[in-house]
Each structure stands twice: as C-alpha cells, then as structure tokens.
Design brief:
Layout lengths: L1 H29 L14 H34 L6 E2 L5 H8 L7 E2 L4 E5 L3 E6 L5 E6 L2 E5 L11 E5 L4 E4 L11 E3 L4 E5 L6 E6 L26 E3 L8 E3 L6 E12 L3 E9 L10 E5 L5 E11 L2 E9 L8 E13 L2 E12 L17 H4 L2
Parallel strand pairs: 12-20
Antiparallel strand pairs: 1-2, 3-4, 4-5, 6-7, 7-8, 9-10, 10-11, 13-14, 14-15, 15-18, 16-19, 17-18, 19-20
Helix pairs in contact: 1-2
C-alpha cells in the first residue's frame, strides 16, 4: 500500500501534466481554424507532411519521456533496502493529501537512532517513525557492595552495558560456627565462616550467673570452656602502670618512654617491666593505627627475664595527614605462675610538620591612620 501511494504521488501529477500538454498541442493545430485541411487536394504535399510531423513527433517524444521517467521512479523504489528506510503509515485522508502533494516523507532510520531499554531488552529506535532495530536482551555484570559478606546490608548490583541496572538483596545464608571462646577476655561468640560476622557475643558465666574472671574461675555454663589459668585484662591504656580491671593486680610498668617526630614519620622507644615472678617467654609485639605509614622496624630486646626494651620507627605518613595515634603493644606474657596477660599497650602521637610562615622583611608596614588620611 505504501509503495502504491508513493508511485501515485510521483506519477499521477506528471501524467495530468502530459495530458494537458497534448490537449494544448491538438488545440493549436485543430481548434484555431488556421490549419489547412490535409485532405484538401489543393494543399501541396510538402505542407501536408509538415503538418503531420508537427503533430506526431512531439506526441512520440512525450510518450517516450513518460515511459523513461516512470521506469526510473519505480526502479528507484524497488531497489532500496527495506531495512534501511521506513515510511509512515498513512490514514485514508492522509493518502489523499499525499496524492495531491509532490513532497516525500521517506527517511533513513539509522540517521535518527536513539538508544532505549526496558526491564528486559535494549535497542536502537528511530526518533522519526519509532521503528525498533537491534533488539537484544540485557546481559549483566554483577558486583556486591560488601564483597562476599553474608550480611543483609550486602546488596548485589546488576548492571547492563546499555545503562539499565537493578539491585537485589543478599540471599546467602550465614554459616555459623559453634560457640567459640575468647579465653583472655572471658567471652564467647559465634562467627560466620564465610564473612566473619559475629553474633551471640557474651561474657562467660558460671551456672549461678556470675561472670568468670581472673578472680572467679570455673566452667562457662554456655560454651563449656573450663578456666584454670588466670588471664589479667588491662584497665587503662595511657597510665605508666597497667592494672588488671578485674582484680587490680599491677601488670607491669612502662619506663624510659621517648618519641621523636621526623619529617614524615616517628621514632619511639620504651622499657616494660613485670614482677619478679613474671617473664616474656613466647611474647610478641603488635602495632596499630599506622594509617598507611610503613613500619621500618618494631623490635623487642630483653634487658633481663622480667624486663624488655622496645623500639619502633614508622615512615611514609602523608604530608597532609591529620594527627595520628600510633599504638605499640606487648602481647602474651606471664606476670606470675599460671597468670598471663593478653596485651598491654602504649600510645604515641604523630603530628604532621607545621612550617612557620615566611615573613618578607622587605615589606614595610604603613601606619593605617596615616594611610586613611
């Protein structure tokens, strides 16, 4: 139907024009009254031949031209690839308007592509006629906001290259352990084997409900761990004397504490001493809060069985880094027979260098009252 409309649009106006031209030609020779009768024997033969030639030759030329133009128009429409072009669907009234018009509504859809998508597919769409091309189902890349965590807060983002995306909730189940005992802290908990999330963190208690501590040993009514060794827990982090927060026992003394700020780091040292019945067999050091700086060294040297000397150096703090607290700790040492400490710590503060402003001595200060008149 569209092709017929197009052909009528191009051919019919031209045929009407040809018909008018033929009528004008006939009127010229037969209706003016000035043309001699070719059957009149008094008219010379040459004049008769001239009259026939003037009538027939233009008619033949006109018919040939009509045929050539019609062939060109039909051929041009028949060889155009259908997938590259599109025509608008017309109503009956619009068809009639097109027949009376000499303009075209044909366009190349690929010149007017816009990308569109829905929840299932994405495609190219002609912004002129709305025809869809290259309709393809979405393919997604999936990323989790919290990695492999089983946490409900972990969301999965499904993103297609076309820009469409959606998010789904975490459906993975936690793989919880049995109750595990944190012996030095007298606590127990469960944790997920997959993501490390913790639940049911609680103090270990006896059957009577009392908390198990270094001064109240026994078997936990829930995790069933039997405490036979005392584990002392520090009460403060900044005093030079470290006391157990449960029984008040002095766990050791920090002394000879020094620190030195460098251009992009800090050096520190200290001594730590326990009672005569303690020792540092099997103990180790830990450091926290370096905030991107590199530990150049962190060493422990025994002064004697009950005293150690610790030195440390961190470098590589950023020049615009804010004040940072670095914590050094001594871990897993004995303060007496069958009495241990999981950790004691001491802190140092790193402050970025603050260069004083450079004052130009050549600049003279002018009396403001004088300058203002």
């Amino acid at each position: 139907m569209r092709k017929n409309v197009k052909r009528r649009k191009f051919i019919l106006p031209f045929l009407h024009s040809c018909e008018r031209s033929m009528e004008n030609l006939q009127n010229k020779f037969y209706c003016t009254g000035n043309v001699p009768n070719i059957r009149d024997t008094t008219v010379p033969y040459k004049n008769k031949l001239k009259i026939r030639t003037q009538i027939i030759v233009p008619s033949i030329v006109m018919l040939v031209l009509i045929c050539v133009i019609a062939i060109c128009v039909v051929g041009a429409h028949s060889v155009r690839p259908p997938e590259e072009t599109s025509q608008i669907n017309f109503t009956k009234q619009e068809d009639e308007e097109i027949l009376a018009s000499t303009s075209t509504v044909e366009h190349v859809c690929s010149n007017y592509y816009v990308s569109k998508y829905d929840t299932t597919n994405h495609w190219n769409e002609c912004s002129i006629c709305g025809k869809k091309y290259n309709v393809v189902a979405h393919t997604y890349t999936e990323t989790w906001t919290m990695g492999e965590s089983c946490s409900p807060a972990n969301k999965c983002n499904h993103v297609c290259t076309c820009g469409y995306s959606y998010q789904t909730n975490n459906t993975r189940e936690h793989d919880w352990t049995e109750l595990k005992t944190d012996v030095p802290l007298y606590k127990h908990r469960q944790y997920c084997k997959s993501c490390g999330d913790v639940k049911n963190l609680a103090d270990c208690t006896l059957e009577d409900g009392s908390k198990i501590t270094c001064s109240n040993l026994g078997t936990c009514s829930l995790c069933k761990h039997s405490y036979t060794k005392k584990y002392h827990v520090i009460d403060t982090r900044n005093s030079s004397i470290k006391d157990c927060k449960f029984c008040g026992l002095s766990l050791g003394i920090f002394s000879n504490v020094t620190s030195k700020l460098l251009s992009n780091g800090i050096e520190f040292s200290y001594d730590f001493t326990v009672s005569d019945s303690g020792n540092f067999n099997g103990s180790s050091l830990g450091m926290w809060g370096q905030n991107g700086a590199t530990i150049e060294y962190h060493t422990m040297t025994k002064n004697n069985p009950t005293s150690i000397h610790v030195t440390g150096k961190l470098v590589g703090f950023k020049s615009d880094e804010k004040t940072t607290v670095i914590t050094s700790g001594v871990q897993n040492f004995d303060v007496a027979t069958n009495e241990s400490v999981s950790r004691v710590t001491i802190s140092f503060t790193y402050t970025p260098d603050q260069e004083p402003p450079v004052i130009n001595s050549n600049i003279e200060q002018t009396n403001l009252a004088t300058s203002n008149g």
